Structure formats: C-alpha cells, structure tokens
Amino acid sequence: MSFPWAKHYEPTHPFMQWMDQKLPLPRLVYNAIGAGYPVPRNLNYFWNFGVLAGAALVIQIVTGIVLAMHYAANGAVAFDSVEHIMRDVNSGWFLRYAHANGATMFFIVVYLHIFRGLYFGSYKAPREMVWLLGVVIFLLMMATAFMGYVLPWGQMSFWGAQVITGFFSAIPVVGEPIRQWLLGGFAPDNAALNRFFSLHYLLPFVIAAVIILHIWALHIPGSSNPTGVEVKDEQDTVPFHPYYTAKDGFGLAIFLIVFAVLLFFAPNMLAEPVNYVPANPLSTPAHIVPEWYFWPFYAILRAFTVDFLWVPAKLWGVIAMFSSILLLFILPWLDNSPVRSTTYRPLYKWFFWLLMFDIVILGICGMKPAAEPWVRMGQIASAYYFAHFLIILPIVSRIERPLPLPNSITEAVLAKHKAA
Amino acid sequence: MAVVETDPSANAGMEDGVRRRDFINIAAVSFAGVGVVAVALPLVNQMNPSADVLALASIEVDLSAIQPGQAIKTSWRKQPIFIRNLTPAEIEDAKKVDVGGLRDPESLEARTKPGKENWLITLGVCTHLGCVPLGAAAGELRGDFGGYFCPCHGSHYDTAARIRKGPAPKNLVVPEYAFTSDTVVQIG
Is ipTM > 0.90 here? Predict the structure, then answer.
C-alpha cells in the first residue's frame, strides 16, 4: 500500500515493458525504494540506521561466506584454522577483522535503530508489527552473534558456550537433559562446535527473511517521522528516490568511515585477549565477560544472588534476563500515550533519558567482575529497568499532558524553517 | 471447486452436516501429521550425545599420590573432576556446619563413602553456570569457606564442596563412583 499520490511505474523502454509483464521486479523496487514510495519529508539522520543495519548484515554474510571457505569446525583444529586465516590466507586478516568488527558495527547501528524506535514512538499503532518483527530480528542476531563467538574456540569462546548453555540447566527437571541435547555432550566439545557453525551459517539468512517481513510490514502504514504526526497530504512527503537514497548513501559513507577506522586502526579494541588462548576445558579464565553488546543483559542475569519465593537465584537470573528482552514484545501495549514522539512528552522525556542512563549503568556492571559495588549497582539498575516498563511507563502515559502537536508535518517543517 | 460443492451428488452421504469428504480431509492431514512427527524424531534426536561421547563415561584414578590437604583435577566425560584428600581440620569444619541451614542440605557423610570420608570427589563444574571453580590447584583462592571458589559469579563452596554463598543453587555434584581397591577409584 502507498499514498494515493504515489507516482506510478510506467516503463517506456520496450524491454522494461516486456520485463514488467513477465517478472515485475523493477516495479517492486520502484514502489519499495524508488520514486513510487512517498516518505515523510522531515526524516532526520536517525532514520538512516535501518538501511545501515541492512548494509551491516550484507557485510557479515559476504565476509562470513568467504571465512567459511578457510575455517574448520573441529575442536582439534578450529583455533589453528582461525590463526591460519590470520597469518596464511591471502587477505585473511582483513576478512576476519571485518567480520569480527562488523558484528560490533551491526550491533551499534541496531541499538541506534532501536533507540530511534523508542524515542520517536515508532512501536505504536499502526506499526506494532514492524516493532515485533524487529524484536524477533534482535533475538536472532543475539543467537547468531553468540554462536559466531564460539567458533574461534578460544578460552572465552569455550567458556561463553559453557555459561550460555548453562542458562538452560536452570530450568527445573528438564534443564540438564536440554543442555546436553543442545551441546550433544556433557560439556562443549566437537558436537557443539559443529552445530554452532551450522546454525551460525543458517541464521543470517533467517534474519534476512524476517527483515523482508519487517520492511513489508513497515510499507503498509509507511515510515513514522520525528513529529510523530501522520502524513496528511502530498506536501508532507517526498519520493524515496532520490531524496532518501541520497541521504542513506551519505549515512552509509559515514558508517563505512567509522567501520574502516575500527577495522584498520583498532581491530582488537573490543576483543578479549584471553580468546587468543586455545580453549581449555579444565581451566576457567579469571573473569568471564561477554561481548560488549551483551553487557546490560549479563548484568541483569547476575543481579539475583539469593533465592526468592522458592525459586533458586540462578533461575531468577535467567528468567529476568530473557524477560528484559521479551518485555519489548508488549511495549506497544504498555505505552498508552497517543503521542508518539518523546519531543512532545515533557514528563516521559525525563524517564526516557533515565532509562538510557540506567542501561549504560547496566552495561558497566555487566562488564565488571561479580564484586561490590557492581553487584549492588546492577541489582538497583535491573530493578529500575523493569520498573520503567512495567510501572512508570503505563502511569506516565496516563497522567501526562503532552505538548501541542503541529497540525501537519509540513507545518512543523516550515515553523522550524522560520525560527532558523 | 465451486461446481463440485453445488453438485447434489457430492452431498449424497451427508448426515448431520458431516460429509464423506471430511473423513478424507481428516485422514489425509492426520496421516501427513504422523509422517511429520516420524521424520522430526530423528532430526531432534541427532542432537543428543552420540555413542562415542557416551563411551567415555567411566575412568579409573589412582589416589595413592594425593597427600592430605592436596587435590587433583582430572577429566571425566570432558568435564573436570576434583579429587581432594581432606585434612582432619577440614573434615571437622565440614561436620561443624548445621546441615539444615544450608541451601542444599547434605552432610559430609552423605557426600563421601563410609570409612573414606577424607576423599571428597566432585565435578569441578560450578552448579551456577558451569565454570571451573578455583581451589583444586595449590595456591588458588578457596573462597570464604575454605573449599572452592568460582570466580565467574562469586560462588563460595565449603570444605565439603557445599554451596554457602553466591548464586549457585546446588552443591558441587558428587558423581557416581566406587573404590575398586584401597587406592583406586572408578568414576562413572
């Protein structure tokens, strides 16, 4: 679906006319990301990150496929095959660093994409399905990233696999059999490494498929915008091409510059040195820490240190960690405010930034060893995280008096123009 | 299809709104469903530990070289095993504890073999999330209760390897084992 004033695809060249009758792929592209797709005229740079996340996925798939040509998923040789890629394979160091840091870039742009959705209320009706599919993509990304991190079979790979699959043993009665089923053994070994490689190769394509659904669901109501006011008439929109193809192209260039700086000048900045030690099942590293993009969730996992209501602390931790993400699935129904953009929500704005601060604190606690004051801080920050979504958000959206909204996107744009 | 539906002969066997075709639909879908389950079983089961992994299920260890106060680390089913020769002081410490007040109440006697209660044999796998606790090798931290200490999330185990502090829910697991002679133990 699109707005009534969308331009129609009318091929002039006989070949394109012939093509349009046999396989209307150019028509699909024209109507999806071409001149036939009108988009609000006031999108800011936060609207670049969806495209950038797509670009990051393509980079991961391309570098990943070529790395798989040189990698061997066997416990005896996996570590050495990664070193072989780094030292012997032509340009292997580049491909591996691009893949490892590409994951970081992917999470950076996805977190900014989620931030955009949270701040500008993109999850609200009529875009709930877009948001839900986005959370699914996020979960798939986390699973893929975790399994990819196991493949080099270093110390942190091995112990990360041990800890993460250990989550499942927290489930009463069936937990331990499930863990052994997942690992194909009593501890991470060849069987686990092989299946993680298989799934690590599969899941990015599943992500790509869910992204298609995500974009499909988005194109039904069309993009939201920084005012949160819906498009009213033709004045409020511009065609996607050339306006946003150009803007996204500019954003992509900035993204690639940042990526290149990380890749060429600090490729190991976010890597754990201990993962350059081969996996040793008999010795745990002194401090197990996940990749940076999991830190806040790791802090929530560790927040429970005492049993509570007959449920062991370990199970609470696992439940809390999964709930912290699953909570996002009900977010569209927790926030009842009809106003989308936080810009027009004077009270919610405070709590929004407090939540961002809280997540940063969680991240720091997740990075630090399990000792005071980090444990206590992590507990308070975890409690606040849940309080924000389950208590504060529903109350604030009920009692808040929002600022007056502009009558239309065009009015907002022109008012801004006049003020400047 | 619409033509078939309106054909009176199609409704010839109709009684109480049930058509003969409904039986065909249910039978076909059920048959396909049984087929799907039959194929799914091996697809799911292949993930379970394979025969060669299970074959490593039992080992023998000679204990004669382990002095009181010493511990060794060995490997069973690809998992670390701690074998500790407890000192009399450690045994006394473990027995002094009020068992009922523990998170996972178990006495030292229940965790060792009769007459061999100085031999504490446990998995070296923290019951929280599976790290290898410290304390088996000389000079390693042994935690607030003098047993084992898991550095990952700060679980402290006492001299009978029982959980005393931290997030782990259970004591270190005592595997199935038996003394085959005075100094040799078979684990698994």
Answer: no
